[in-house]
Amino acid sequence: LPDGYGKKISFWGDANGAHYGMGVDENGWKIFSDASFTYIVFGTGSSSAFTEFMRINGSGQVGLGTTSPQYNLDVAGNMRISSYSDLVRNQFNQPAPQYVPGALYLNGQDNTTTPARLSLNNGWFGWYRNSDNRLLFGFNPSGAMVLNGSTGTAGQVLMSRGFVVAPAWENDVLADMYANQQVGWAANPAFLNDGSFQQISFVNSKPIFGSESPLVISINSATKVLVKWDLVGSAACCAPGFFQLNVMDNGAVKRSLRYTIAADQTNTISGSTLITMAAGDHNISLQLAKISGSNLVFTSDNPNGIFSMITVSRITGKVL
């Protein structure tokens, strides 16, 4: 065949003179079939014992390891993206290799920029902002989570701040409590007559000398705590006593519950509630109010040596 553009190798033709195979023109080298429902296959072996490696269907979809690609690139198996060396000029105008990590790049809507890439770079893996190589989200070589280039500091947790504001690393809740809880012992008795109410305060040790420190819970960030109580109470003769218990935090009512003690009985009233605490110091107390029935008395120490007490436990983690 003469030099120049035109048909070069024809594998298939028809009576109308159209031929299909391989050829070149001003746009490049072309491999083409006769219809959109046919495909181009690469592999080894004879026609009767052919092993297929890659296929391009009539829609331009490429399949590796699959004979029916459903996407522009459809891979059945593992895929590897390797790093490469990009030659740059040094100060002496000599070419020198520059390490470029292998990556999956995503274009923006205008298809002219590369704002993000999925890459493994010196052991740091995740999504990078290509403009300044910042790791937006991923993991460092030790496996610690990275957000916007930062792993945070020890003890911090990742906190969502809604749809508009980006998440951030926040300090976990730390409470000034021994063994993650604080036990308080009733420092004063409460006598409930008709229409009366009284508040029981608690101290951080069994009251002996009357000068024990008050039970104060220190919280450095908003969280929730579990308050549990065991109150030793007695009702007077002849009728049950009905009362209301208010859980107080720095003088404010956080929860109200109602209980009954049978006539002429001494019982331990147990309960619990989950309350939210803001950052700062908190004095937890219980306020008791008689509703009806017999008069009631709640003591810090009954004849059997049983104390009324509360237990305050923090919930690990940050709860707003």
Describe the structure.
With 320 residues, this protein is mostly beta strands. The chain has no helices and 28 strands. It has strands at residues 6-13, 19-25, 28-31, 40-44, 51-56, 62-64, 73-75, 84-89, 95-100, 103-106, 116-121, 124-129, 134-139, 145-147, 156-161, 165-171, 181-186, 190-192, 197-200, 202-203, 216-219, 223-235, 241-249, 252-261, 266-277, 280-293, 296-298, 309-314. The strands form seven sheets. Strands 17, 18, 20, 22, 25, 27 and 28 form a seven-stranded antiparallel sheet that branches. Strands 10-11-12-13-14 form a five-stranded antiparallel sheet, with no helix packed on it. Strands 19, 21, 23, 24 and 26 form a five-stranded antiparallel sheet that branches. β1 (6-13) and β2 (19-25) form a beta hairpin. The radius of gyration is 39 Å and the shape is elongated.
What would you say about this model in short?
This protein has 320 residues and is mainly β. It contains no helices and 28 strands. The strands form seven sheets. Strands 17, 18, 20, 22, 25, 27 and 28 form a seven-stranded antiparallel beta sheet that branches. A five-stranded antiparallel beta sheet has the order 10-11-12-13-14, with no helix packed on it. Strands 19, 21, 23, 24 and 26 form a five-stranded antiparallel beta sheet that branches.
Evaluate the radius of gyration.
Answer: 39 Å
**Amino-to-carboxy terminus distance:** 80 Å
Total beta-strand segments: 28
Characterize the biggest β-sheet.
Answer: 7 strands, antiparallel
**Strand-residue proportion:** over 45%
Alpha-beta content class: mainly beta
Shape: elongated
Order of helices and strands: EEEEEEEEEEEEEEEEEEEEEEEEEEEE
Mean pLDDT: 83
Annotation field: number of helices: 0
User: Uncertain runs with pLDDT below 50, 5 residues or more?
Assistant: none
Quaternary structure state of the chains depicted:
single chain
Helix content: under 10%
